[in-house]
Amino acid sequence: MDPASRNIILRNKDYLSERIDLYKLRPFLKKHDIFTYLMLDDIYNFPTEYDFYVELTTRGPDALDKFRQVLRDAGYSQEASIFETNSSNIRDPDAIDKFRPVLRETGYSQGANIGGTNSSNIVGKRMCYKMNSKPFLGYCFIINNVKFKRHSYRYGSDVDAQALDRLFTNIGYKVEIESNLEASEMIAYLKKFSKQDWSAVDSCVLFILSHGNNSQNLDIIFGSDSEFVKLIDIYKIFDNENCQPLKFKPKMFFFSACRGDEVDYGVWTTVSSDAAKIVKVSAMTDMFIVHSTLPNHESYRDHEKGTWFCQDLIEVFSSDYLTQDLDTMLQTVDRKLESRLSEEMSKQVLHIDHFGVKATVYLSMEKVVDICEIYDPQKSLAS
């Protein structure tokens, strides 16, 4: 969502909260696909943690138009009219003045009206990881395995690696690439990468582009010698015990690789803070794990353009990283990925895991600082 539209929603948040029963909106929010079912459950079940209107501002460029239709469908035509101008998308925040006499501008402290009762203790901002370190937002390591001893050549992977290098350099990461590493070398380079000086940066990004499979229900990734590394062993290199400087900082792992040989042929459907306090934390936290495909399934690659996953991720991140959070961008990637169809009429979808994630990740905070409250691990642990 562009800053002007976000500002319109936030400026009118109190006015809407007083007049709208969010429970009446829920079926129409589902109908217009503004939020996922899981997000709606969080918003409605945990109103003290999620502000409906703040969350709305993170839901993409069409969210304002969709929300206006939701209000009409739910019988709130008058309230919907404050978003209407001669343009289909409001650009001037002051344009709404002609639709109602009083415009409230009391900030973001008031929350959503759940069940028709105005709640003053709703959190008015999204909890976000700090993501604004300079000169680098973080360090990004890309392992690009193309040639293998007993596996096929990964045509197109060099295209992915070069495009990812450009993308994350542009976002603000210091990028390092290594190619055709044997399994033992992968571990050695990952351990070396984990020993970076993380004190001056806010995050870690790792991409591994290679062949993969599963062994005894564990995901594995192959080195150029066709020997494998367990993904769980990679996670441990960066966990809170082995890489303490990254504790409480987001660690993003992306794997573009097969996870087995199963094929998804799809189905046909009809479209309609106490410093002295000592606490124990989990070993693996603040980890975002993104797989290009489902467990045990194949992952597809174009020999000239690169993998489906990297093509779609690079396109979406390039256009949206300034205004959208990581999970929202990955949902967009997944929609694009799921729209593809191989020559064998097979499909592919993302698999995303979160290990102890406490907050939202924006790869750029400049345009969303007004809706973010920086996650403070010390405060969180002390409570």
Description:
It is built from 13 helices and 15 strands. By secondary structure, the chain is of the alpha/beta class. The protein has 2 domains: 3-82, Death Domain, Fas; 127-264 and 280-381, 3-Layer(aba) Sandwich (Rossmann fold). Residues 86-123 and 271-275 have low confidence and may be disordered. It has helices at 3-11, 13-19, 22-31, 37-45, 52-56, 63-73, 77-80, 157-171, 183-194, 231-237, 308-320, 326-338, 377-382; strands at 113-114, 117-118, 126-128, 138-144, 173-179, 203-209, 212-215, 218-222, 228-230, 251-256, 287-291, 301-302, 306-307, 351-355, 372-374. The chain starts with a helix and ends with a helix. The radius of gyration is 23 Å and the shape is globular. The strands form 5 sheets. It has a 6-stranded mixed β-sheet, with helices on both faces. A 3-stranded antiparallel β-sheet has the order 7-8-9. The longest helix is centred in the middle third of the chain and has 15 residues, at 157-171. Helix 8 packs parallel to helix 11 (308-320) and helix 11 (308-320) crosses helix 12.
Radius of gyration: 23 Å
Strand content range: 15-25%
Number of strands: 15
Query: How does the helix and strand content classify structurally?
Result: alpha/beta
Low-confidence stretches: 86-123, 271-275
Tally of individual helices: 13
The main β sheet shows up as:
6 strands, mixed
What's the number of domains?
Answer: 2
Order of helices and strands: HHHHHHHEEEEHEHEEEEHEEEEHHEEH
CATH architecture label name of the largest domain: 3-Layer(aba) Sandwich
| CATH topology tier name of the largest domain | Rossmann fold
Provide the spatial order of strands within the biggest beta sheet.
5-4-6-10-11-14
The 3D shape can be described as globular
Alpha carbon gap, first and last residue: 33 Å
What's the average pLDDT? 84
Helical residues, percent:
25-40%
CATH secondary-structure class of the largest domain: Alpha Beta
Domain Caspase family p10: 277-338
Protein name: Caspase-9
Domain Caspase family p20: 138-262
GO molecular function: cysteine-type endopeptidase activity
